[in-house]
Write a structure and sequence with these properties.
This is Microtubule-associated protein RP/EB family member 1C. The chain has 13 helices and no strands. By secondary structure, the chain is mainly α. Among the domains are: about 130 residues, Orthogonal Bundle (Actin-binding Protein, T-fimbrin, domain 1); about 50 residues. The longest helix is centred in the middle third of the chain and has 36 residues. It is extended and about 90 Å long. It starts with 15 loop residues before the first helix and ends in a 6-residue tail after the last helix. The relative contact order is 0.06.
């Protein structure tokens, strides 16, 4: 059973249309966007479909609009995760914001998990009946039924109208021209040049997808490294995250990241003890230079004195140094 799924698992490369088709067919809903399931109620019922009866559906609120009501649904989901010993972390603060990418990734994980349970088969599961006991579940079912009916009506009218227009075009067209068009189209269908071009484009798409997956994995590894507790608050990591999460492509993220690094470097230099030691060394060297200059000055002064004055100075020094001698 898949509880911990890696970021490079095939589940995270399932498209939005496939996810929506799976949700709508499993729960008999009519969602048009993945982020419409951000309230958490859909996740609860998907887990109830995988494990029938394990989710207390009477606690699920399909009419949740505020973040507080949505959080209550995710609490129910977390309790079920704990019962099933699922270690998947639910990022509730991101999901309730209705961001498309966050909701898509979590729904991709949900599909992967539900497919791993009984090969994704729900035996005798009635989503409408289970949803009726929930708050707002009956209204949700009615809205889905009405939207499905309107969608079926519109799709039924489109083929009929298109069929009538095509029949009119064929009746008004010249049979000779139609035959000529068919004759021109027949050789091009089996043209090896077209087949070679199609094969080349497919190979190009495959290589681009592999390159995309490679660089996505690299960026994901960098993101995980930046979340390490020992370094996550450093200026360099903050600058890397600034570039990593930049949404615009005008080049300002790099300049802002460089500014963050320079500011952090200045703060570190201001708090560095090495700079204080260097300042103390420079002050001591200046003091030594002053003492040396004073000694040189004294020597030069002595050179200008007469021999008698020198002797008197020496006698004064001897008298001052010894308390036993009197002058």
């Amino acid at each position: 059973m898949a509880t911990n799924i890696g970021i490079m698992d095939a589940a995270y490369f399932v498209g939005r249309s496939e996810i929506l088709s799976w949700i709508n067919s499993t729960l008999q809903l009519n969602l048009s966007k993945v982020e419409e399931a951000c309230s958490g109620a859909v996740h609860c019922q998907l887990l109830d479909a995988a494990h029938p009866g394990i989710v207390p559906m009477h606690k699920v609120n399909f009419d949740a609009k505020s973040e507080y009501e949505m959080i209550q649904n995710y609490k129910v989901l977390q309790d079920v995760f704990n019962k099933l010993k699922i270690t998947k972390h639910i990022e509730v603060s991101k999901l309730v914001k209705g961001r498309p990418l966050d909701n898509l990734e979590f729904m991709q994980w949900m599909k992967r998990y539900c497919d791993s349970v009984n090969s994704g088969l729900q035996h005798n599961y009635n989503p409408l009946e289970r949803r009726e006991v929930s708050k707002g579940g009956r209204e949700t079912s009615k809205k889905s039924a009405n939207s499905q009916a309107s969608t079926k009506g519109s799709t039924a009218q489109r083929p009929q109208s298109s069929h009538n227009s095509r029949r009119n075009e064929v009746s008004n067209a010249n049979p000779t021209n139609q035959a000529a068009k068919v004759a021109r189209a027949a050789p091009s269908a089996g043209n090896p040049a077209y087949e070679e071009k199609i094969t080349e484009l497919k190979l190009s798409i495959d290589s681009l997808e592999k390159e995309r997956d490679f660089y996505f994995a690299k960026l994901r590894d960098i993101e995980i490294l930046c979340q390490t507790p020992e370094i996550e608050h450093s200026p360099i990591v903050a600058a890397i995250q600034k570039i990593l999460y930049a949404t615009d492509d005008n080049g300002t993220a790099v300049a802002e990241a460089q500014a963050m690094i320079s500011v952090g470097r200045k703060e570190i230099e201001g708090l560095s003890p090495i700079a204080e030691v260097s300042e103390e060394k420079s002050s001591s060297e200046t003091h030594k230079r002053k003492n040396i200059a004073n000694i040189d000055f004294d020597v030069a002064g002595l050179a200008t004195l007469s021999p008698r004055q020198r002797l008197s100075d020496v006698s004064d020094v001897h008298c001052s140094e010894s308390p036993l001698m009197t002058c």
